[in-house]
Amino acid sequence: MSIARLSVKAATNFGVGYKIGAAFKEHFHERCASAASKRLKQFYDSDHGRNVYENALLSTERCYPNIVQELRGLSDGSEVPFENLFLHSLASEIWLYYLDKDANPSPQATFNPPKKQENLRCTDILVNSRSCRIIGHNEDWQRECYGKGYVVDVEIDKQSNKPVNKTTSVKPVGKYNQTESACSETASHTKPHHKHKSIQQKISERNEQFVSFATPCELTGFTFAMNKYFVFTVNSLVPKESNTEGVPIAVLIRALMGARSIEECVQVMQNEPFGCCYGINLNIASIHTNEMWSMEVYSSKDGSSVSLKQLPFEDSETPQNHYVHTNHYKYTPGALELYDNLLYSCARHFTALHQDTPKSVKDVCRILGDTSNSEGPIYRQVVPTEKTATIATGLFDLKSKLMHVFDKNPNLSDPCFSIPFLK
């Protein structure tokens, strides 16, 4: 197996999406033909599923029309219908929440809800000391994505997107028959007529530069990623209720790639006044300071909230501990989870927490590659009887300023490649 790399430069979100979709078109179609993707479409074909989809799309168009354009670009480039791709942007909400509810499917569409614990994903190890500043992440997702993930280096120069001179001949792009300049007009109405801009407006108008691992049909950011200011990793969480008026998690995390301060990170995930559709854990480290945080987003039928925990910097050569996050809430007061006993998540958390304190990249790789607990291994090998596997590992070495990407067990292999931090 090998993880592909793609460098993308464009003037709009549509242009970025188009180039990614075109580059990985074959993988997009293979993903859409899978049983898991067909189940998402089956949910969409139900009355309840269509209502969930329409509410999420409306909220997204109001908050981040530029990201809707990015999805349209992905659709155009890959020749996959837009609704299929937006369904994948709702995949966490659908798989981890709605498919275990009464979705009221139509008589023509029946499905059996999956065992949701199989879909809980990812383990993170965080160390923040003078000798070792690392965030390591196992990306656990559907087995069908194994061998089809890719890393994209994205640069969007929105300031270069000037109005097209009427005398200039510009070739339209894709079935939407749009030029890159025309694509940005969808978001132009969001420019404020007052002094203070919302966080959505700030992020939408900015130039962006980031690196992210991604899987076919999904937005970038929703795995492990970095921009010029932060590194990010993502873990699924399962609150008991969903915020039906919120913006999908994947969309907000895509928007997070434009954040420049931890305050902006919080504001993006708060996403006032709509909030976030569902719960998620984000682990974030500053590239330029010794700061490191773990963020939990919690949803309820009344909205969503954000809890931020700053991890102490151990000012000694020997760190006293390391921090582990899997798929259950750790510090959000009063959080109600869909399951009382998340066996697989707790097993991975227990195994990782009771390892010797890591003092190097090699030590973190050892923990992330641990397979000692057969019921809930930290590194989840591809086996026919399991629907989920570790499809990639990302390790951010904040002292050496390198992002290491592994396509095999990191305790037993070298990285596919190592990417210097952005400057």
TrEMBL record:
Superkingdom of origin organism: Eukaryota
Residue span(s) of domain Peptidase C45 hydrolase: 192-406
InterPro entries: Peptidase_C45 (IPR047801), Peptidase_C45_hydrolase (IPR005079)
Pfam annotation, one family: AAT
Annotated PANTHER family: BETA-ALANYL-DOPAMINE_CARCININE HYDROLASE (PTHR34180:SF1), PEPTIDASE C45 (PTHR34180)
Protein name: Peptidase C45 hydrolase domain-containing protein
Organism annotation: Dreissena polymorpha (Zebra mussel)
